[in-house]
Automatic annotation (TrEMBL):
Annotated organism of origin: Actinocorallia longicatena
The keyword Lipid metabolism is assigned to this record: yes
Subunit description: Homodimer.
Name of the protein in question: Acyl-ACP desaturase
InterPro entries, per database record: Fatty_acid_desaturase-2, Ferritin-like_SF, RNR-like
The UniProt record lists the keyword Magnesium: no
């Protein structure tokens, strides 16, 4: 059950949620997954007398294959995300309308990516299906439990992280159709981020100290929802080495833009606990920036060694 402060904030945010829902509906563009799939490239697999997948059929880069697999499996766990968000935010009023609308839009992402990957044979569909079954059997439970402020803070960052990951996966794929599709998906994720970011901005005005603690906890413990995917660490390393999503992008393009928008480092009137949370956040961001620099240096050195061996 949400804590007392979360219940208070939840109710006081009703007007903001309704306004943000209406803003979202006015900005969201209708689109259809089938329009982004080159159906003419489709062929039967062995079960129907055709040929099963082989690596040389894929037109996307190896790193983007890993990213596409992670991205799609993350989208596949939508039932778990819906259940968690509906439990935390409720199923009534504007909150309930938003949860259902968000779920419907997110479902398109899994549909279009799966259809595209299957038709173009970009990824082995057998591997993909086995991974989907395994990942969904694990399910999903948010690390922050049923805390409203933590939940809204998390999705504010997570939606932007997903947008960056989808966009860069398309760019790295080497396939113009794949890039176009992933840009379309990323556009949805950006609108979702704006909704949650604006809702939490209003929450900061209502409960600044509790919101600061939630933001700090989420930033320090942030994990993408697909972290339970089998082999996630190995895949994440390949994705980071390819520059699709790494510590630098996480710091510069995900965390800092949202924190600046909220004005967390300029916020006045915090009590001792709020200031403590902000100091923790500042220290963590400094450490993350240093870790990102070290990762970039190691990656560049590794690339230089590989280039030297190739000469």
């Amino acid at each position: 059950m949400p804590e007392a402060i979360d219940i208070k904030v939840l109710h006081e945010l009703d007007g903001t949620v309704e306004a943000e829902l209406n803003r979202h509906l006015s900005m969201a563009k209708e689109w259809f997954p089938h329009d982004y799939v080159p159906w003419s490239q489709g062929r039967d697999f062995a079960f129907l007398g055709g040929a099963d997948w082989s690596p040389e059929e894929s037109n996307v880069t190896p790193a983007s294959r890993e990213a596409l697999l992670v991205n799609l499996l993350t989208e596949d766990n939508l039932p778990g995300y819906h259940a968690a968000i509906a439990r935390i935010m409720g199923k009534e009023g504007a909150w309930g309308q938003w949860v259902n609308r968000w779920t419907a839009e997110e479902n398109r992402h899994g549909i279009v990516i799966r259809d595209f990957l299957t038709v173009t044979r970009a990824i082995d569909p057998v591997v993909l299906e086995r991974a989907r079954m395994q990942h969904m059997e694990i399910g999903y439970e948010p690390d922050h439990g049923d805390k409203v402020l933590h939940g809204v803070a998390y999705v504010s960052f997570q939606e932007l992280a997903t947008r960056v990951s989808h966009r860069n996966t398309g760019k790295a794929s080497g396939d113009s159709l794949c890039e176009q599709m992933m840009q379309r998906v990323a556009a949805d994720e950006n609108l979702h981020m704006i909704f949650y970011r604006n809702v939490l901005a209003a929450a900061i005005e209502i409960a600044p100290n509790e919101a600061m603690r939630a933001i700090t906890d989420v930033v320090k413990g942030f994990q993408m929802p697909g972290y339970t995917i089998d082999g996630f660490l190995r895949k994440s390393v390949a994705i980071a080495n390819a520059g699709i999503y790494d510590l630098r992008l996480h710091h510069d393009e995900v965390l800092m833009p949202v924190l600046r928008k909220w004005g967390v480092f300029e916020l006045e009137g915090l009590d001792a606990e709020g200031e403590k949370a902000r100091e923790e956040l500042s220290d963590f961001m400094t450490g993350l920036d240093e870790a990102a620099k070290k990762f970039e240096e190691r990656r560049e050195a590794r690339r230089a060694r590989i280039a030297a061996r190739a000469e």
